[in-house]
Each structure stands twice: as structure tokens, then as C-alpha cells.
Amino acid sequence: MKYSSLMGTILAMGLAAPAAAQVTVDETVCGASPGGLWSLVGAGLDTAVKELSPGSTVTYQTSSGGLANVAQVAAGTCALGMANDGDLVFASNGTEPFEEPVEGLTAIAVLYDWAPVWWIARADWADQHGIETLADFAEKQPPTRLVFNRRGLLTSAITEATLEALGVTLEDVESWGGSVQFQASGEQTTLMRDGRVDLLANTLFEGHSSLSQMAAATELRLIEVPDEAAEAVIEQYGLQPWTIPESENPGEGGDVDTVTTSIILFADESLDEEIAYTITRAMIDHSSAMAAVSDAMQRFAPEGMLAQDVLPFHPGAVRAYEEAGLR
After folding, report:
1. Residues 239, 257: contact at Cβ < 8 Å?
2. How many Cβ atoms sit within 10 Å of the Cβ of residue 124?
3. Residues 152 and 64: beta-carbon distance below 8 Å
4. Topology of domain 25-113+262-323, per CATH?
5. Where are the domains of the chain?
6. Average pLDDT estimate for 78-89
7. Dihedral sign for Cα atoms in the order 141, 161, 304, 292
8. Ramachandran region, residue 94 (left: φ > 0; alpha: ψ -120 to 50; beta: rest)
9. Which segments within the chain are labelled E, that is strand?
10. Which residue from 263, 304, 313, 267 is spatially nearest to 86, judged by alpha carbons?
11. Do domains 25-113+262-323 and 115-261 have the same CATH topology?
12. What are the φ/ψ torsions at residue 310 (nearest 5 degrees)?
């Protein structure tokens, strides 16, 4: 009997041909600290992949963050890594701390892009000096106790570059009678709550508990990032524009324009296409597993996974997006 006749007989009997075997994933993703959001995202990724391909495992490996993860993925220590968009721009361009461009990096998915940069001021300081935007700050040069996030983090680099785009250096701030500190997020909150700083800059999720803690202690004002400064850091760090809505503003005022960073799941181009496909498809088909790991991840949706242009997408990821009608 010819093959076509045999298949016709099978289908006529109501039987289907066996499905292709599902690829099993056993890979490691390099993240950051063991108890932070990235570790929870890693757990969500593992759950999603297991849902699609039982028996699979994605193991979260602690790391010092995005810059280190680029090196570990390039060296093959981890198949997957998490990094800020700015870290990946620096890696691709060979910008310090990279001595030369890191070739072959590809994107799997945007994990989240809703941690905007907040410029938060004490209301009494902002009202006294008439500061509504960073352009006002640059023009009026008020004495300011300013605090950025820790040195060496992308957040502090972005905020410092934002001022530089307006012609303001940290030395300028000090020459105006002010001071500049670099402190971790928790210490920033304490400093603002205790009235020991006038202006802080940090990346935070909308609704973050620190916002309500600061607002309960002192009246706040959000300071807007003017277009020229936003455009400069968007180009330099591969960021995206963002508007903090009035509903999330912890002080008086309406919507406030700023920029936001993205966290991208990436891999080397040598990652097996079926593995990349399966991981991407798992996040698409089981996005609820990603969204469930933390209140901060509730916005996760397949449509947002493509919202980056820092790296080319891995061919396996492209296939998954095309099959899902997302690209």
C-alpha cells in the first residue's frame, strides 16, 4: 500500500500521526542577587518552561548583575542572562568597562520595562526655588542635597548623564552650595524621609512601597525630565520614554515625563534554536507564570516581550513570535 493511502486509512479511522517530540530544556540563567526580583523572574521562567515542556529546568544562578552576565554568557558559563538595556548597549559598542564589542549577543525577550527613572524632590525645596523640571534646576542652580543610587549601577550612570545633557555636572551642584551622595535605594528612602536630602533620583516601580513611605513623612514633588535630556539618554543607553501617570504621582501635579529602563533576557547566537524557541514559546503560552512571581511583574504580557531594539532577536525567538502572531 502506498504511504499516502496508508495515511488516508489512518486518518479515516480517526487516528492522528504522532506529534513531534518536545525539546527538553536544561539551561542556566545568570541574574543578580539571590533574593531580589530577578531571582523571582528566574523562578517564573522555570515554571513557564516546565509547563510547556515537562522535565525541563531553567536554573537561576546568582551574579553581580547585567555587566557580569554579558561576560558569563559570552564565555558559555550561562546559556541565558538578564541585563539592563544600557548594559547591552555598552557591550555591543565596546564601551567601558568592555574593552571591545561583544559580538553575537541576541535577545530572547523583554522581561519588564516598567521601572522608570524617578526624580523626587521635597515639595518645600521645589516650591522655594520654583523647580518643576530638570531644566529649571539647571537654570536656577539652587543649593541642593542630591542623592543618586550607588556608583557603578546603570541607574546612577543614567541620572548623572541626564544632568550632563543639560550642562550640569556634579561639581556644579557642589559649587552651588549643594552636596552629592551615592546610596542604595533603602538608604535613599531613609534620607528623604528624615529630611536629609532635597532631591533623589532612582529607578522604581510605580506603586513601590518606598514612595508611600517618603510621602507619609514629607510632601513630595516629581520633577520632570525635559525632552532634550530624555532624548540624550535614550540614545546613549537604549532607553524608552515613559510617563508616570497622575494616579501614581506621590505628590501634587499631573502626569510626569521621564525615561524607563528595560530588563532583557538574552543569549549568545550559538544557543540552539529549538532551545531558544521553547523558552520564548513558554513565556508566550504561560505568561501567567511570569506575572505571578511578584506584584511588580503583574504587567507581564507577551505583547511586551518584543519592545526593544538594542539587540537582534535570536532566530528561535523570532520563530516563536511569528507563530504566535506577535511579529
Report:
1. no
2. 13
3. no
4. D-Maltodextrin-Binding Protein; domain 2 (3.40.190)
5. 25-113+262-323, 115-261
6. 96
7. negative
8. left
9. 26-30, 57-61, 80-84, 105-122, 145-148, 179-182, 199-203, 220-222, 240-244, 256-268
10. 263
11. yes
12. -75, -45
How does pLDDT run across 141-187, given as a tens digit for each residue? 999 999 999 887 889 999 999 999 999 999 999 999 999 999 999 99
Query: Which residue in the block uniquely carries the three cell numbers 541642593?
Result: 144
Neighbours of 48 (CB within 10 A): 24
Q: Map grid coordinates 525635559 to a residue.
A: 226
The answer to whether 286 touches 47, Cβ cutoff 8 Å, is yes
Grid cell in block for residue 63:
551574579
Write down the pTM of the prediction. Answer: 0.85
**pLDDT tens digits, one per residue of 263-299:** 999 999 999 999 999 999 999 999 999 999 999 999 9
Give me the residue label for grid cell 546610596.
Answer: 183
Alpha-carbon torsion (292, 296, 298, 303), positive or negative: negative
Beta bridge partners of 243: 257
In the numeric block, which cell numbers belong to residue 136?
Answer: 529649571
Q: How far apart are the first and last CA of the chain?
A: 43
> What is the topology classification, in CATH, of domain 115-261?
D-Maltodextrin-Binding Protein; domain 2 (3.40.190)
Question: Where would I find the beta strands (DSSP E) of 169-276?
Answer: 179-182, 199-203, 220-222, 240-244, 256-268
